[in-house]
TrEMBL record:
<keyword id="KW-0808">Transferase</keyword>
<dbReference type="GO" id="GO:0005737">
    <property type="term" value="C:cytoplasm"/>
</dbReference>
<keyword id="KW-0328">Glycosyltransferase</keyword>
<keyword id="KW-0732">Signal</keyword>
<keyword id="KW-0812">Transmembrane</keyword>
<keyword id="KW-1133">Transmembrane helix</keyword>
<dbReference type="InterPro" id="IPR008166">
    <property type="entry name" value="Glyco_transf_92"/>
</dbReference>
<feature type="signal peptide">
    <location>
        <begin position="1"/>
        <end position="26"/>
    </location>
</feature>
<protein>
    <recommendedName>
        <fullName>Glycosyltransferase family 92 protein</fullName>
        <ecNumber>2.4.1.-</ecNumber>
    </recommendedName>
</protein>
<comment type="similarity">
    <text>Belongs to the glycosyltransferase 92 family.</text>
</comment>
<dbReference type="GO" id="GO:0016757">
    <property type="term" value="F:glycosyltransferase activity"/>
</dbReference>
<dbReference type="GO" id="GO:0016020">
    <property type="term" value="C:membrane"/>
</dbReference>
<dbReference type="Pfam" id="PF01697">
    <property type="entry name" value="Glyco_transf_92"/>
</dbReference>
<keyword id="KW-0472">Membrane</keyword>
Length: 355
């Protein structure tokens, strides 16, 4: 395991995220060290969350979270380190990780962009994605870096310097190196690192939650909470803008304005926003609220939808001969072109269709 997160505000608990082989059921203990490497405490680690449906597959590294309840004053945790073990506690600080305190951002919106890896992202499209998120009012984006080309790293550094991107190193542990790993690890990690924000969005870097009216995401989320004061999270219908189809407006410079032909809103591959203060854990498409009265609901497509830009899903739609509509919503963002142009110039990025 490799990431360590401190969470919870009024109780002294620590949540640790790790990957384990599906057959692993060893009893784990929490060990804490102070800055001078004196053992503070050893206690039983209890499972906080795991994929029960997949957790017993012996061939996959599955995501699991443990919780450690630490009977020490919270101030002493700031100079302490923690680890999990199935043996005796080590006294070597190299075997431990620092405890991280989520930054409190009152009314803040954070976005979990999951994992970026091996050049799988187009730098130009990533620029468009970030600029749309900024226009929508997103305060922080968390992405895990599994190794990317310099063309994409330049874009990441640009948004790190602007303060919107938190880019965390990521690796896939264990042998053999091609063994399957649970993508939920990054999503669970986001819930803990971003716990200080009021809202956490969960979707990929080719997706956008777009309000139907000219308003920010914060406006949409607040209105939804007014309707449902006990809401813990809200799911969005998806419109698929299929890039395999010819662009409806090839004269446009931006992907989000070139492609306007889309499916109608579908209850497929839906994504969400949630309040971490009301949600225990989140996976790619699911939320797990704390006990009632907190609930989950769908946002009406008349209020906001998820725009997903992707090639045709041949395994799902065949030749993609599906009912479509034209959606011109993205033309609302008139200064998006100028913002993207500035970012392209700063990162030496060109769109693929520029020749």
């Amino acid at each position: 395991f490799f990431f360590l997160i401190h969470n919870q505000l009024h109780v002294r608990t620590i949540v640790l995220c790790l990957l384990h082989l599906g057959k692993t059921r060893a009893q784990m203990s929490c060990c804490m060290l102070s800055g001078n490497q004196m053992t503070l405490h050893m206690t039983t680690a209890n499972i906080y969350f795991e994929h029960l449906r997949l957790g017993y597959n012996p061939n996959i590294y599955m995501a699991r979270q443990y919780i450690c309840r630490v009977p020490v004053h919270a101030d002493s945790l700031k100079s302490s380190y923690i680890t999990l073990t199935s043996k005796d506690c080590s006294t070597d600080i190299q075997d431990y990780l620092s405890i991280i305190y989520p930054t409190r951002v009152l009314g803040g919106i954070a976005l979990c962009g999951k994992i970026a890896h091996s050049g799988g992202l187009d730098p130009e499209k990533v620029i468009e994605w970030f600029e749309v998120q900024r226009l929508l009012g997103v305060d922080k984006v968390l992405i895990f870096d599994l190794g990317n080309p310099e063309t994409l790293n330049r874009v990441f550094r640009y948004y790190q310097n602007l303060g919107i991107l938190d880019l965390q190193p990521y690796e896939l542990p264990g042998e053999p190196q091609n063994r399957s790993h649970d993508e939920t690890m990054a999503v669970l990690e986001c819930r803990q690192r971003l716990a200080g924000y009021e809202f956490i969005i969960g979707h990929d870097v080719d997706e956008f939650i777009i309000p139907r009216r000219d308003e920010t995401l914060r406006d949409v989320f607040k209105k939804q909470l007014q309707r449902e004061p006990s809401g813990s999270g809200f799911f969005f219908y998806t419109q698929f803008f299929i890039t395999t189809w010819k662009p409806t407006n090839p004269e446009e410079d931006l992907m989000v304005k070139r492609y306007r032909r889309t499916t109608e809103p579908l209850w497929v591959s839906y994504k969400y926003v949630y309040l971490p203060s009301r949600v225990k854990a989140a996976t790619t498409h699911r939320l797990f609220p704390y006990n009632p009265p907190f609930n989950r609901s769908r946002v009406p497509p008349s209020d906001a939808v998820l725009h997903h830009y992707r090639p045709c899903k041949l395994d799902y739609w065949g030749n993609c001969s599906v009912k479509t509509i034209i959606d011109n919503t993205m033309t609302r963002y008139r200064d998006l072109d100028e913002r993207v142009a500035r970012a392209r110039a700063a990162t030496s990025t060109k769109p693929q269709w520029s020749g």
